[in-house]
Amino acid sequence: MKxxxxxxxxxxxxxxxxxxxxxxxxxxxxxxxxxxxVGKAFANRFKDAGLTKVVxxxxxxxxxxxxxxxxxxxxxxxxxxxxxxxxxxxxxxxEVYSFTKQVTSTVSIAGKFLSPDDRILIIDDFLxxxxxxxxxxxxxxxxxxxxxxxxxxxxxxxxxGRGLLEELGYPVVSLARLDRFENGQVVFKEADI
Length: 193
Ligand code: 5GP
Fold this sequence. Notes:
six-stranded mixed beta sheet; 5 helices; Rossmann fold; alpha/beta; 193 residues
């Protein structure tokens, strides 16, 4: 997605070996106009896929996932990272190691929001080693629902996530694919959309 790649070049900051900071338009301050285009791009790709729900993980997946859900006219569910006393029945959980926080946490979705008839599009802001997406897949499959694909805003193609998810049999569709960082600059490879 050209608009996204241009924005990454303009406002993204490479941190260390493998982190891209995009807090001015995606992970902290959010550019809703860009998110609207993100929503349209995924909706265009998946409009005929028979999807029933969009699933993401808090916090930074919520903004893009909501715009994808709006464009597809579907409900959006986000997995929660902290235990919540109001979530007291039928909780589906998975353990997820956070790439950026370097801690493992239990993420959960209330079972009543997923059913065996559901065909799910997972959306997340970043794909690194695939642990967040893998946890979401485990939760969705506990409900007997089916994951159709994993949609990613920014894929770091030099990490293991895509390989892991494809090996498990889930198509990955990314709007921007980062091939490498060179002298603090992002070098892209061809994106899926
Ligand atoms: P994974 O589970 O694929 O290893 O990592 C994906 C998660 O880690 C995403 O949900 C995202 O929040 C975070 N993440 C991974 N890499 C980056 C990065 O380079 N920059 C930012 N801002 N977040 C990242």
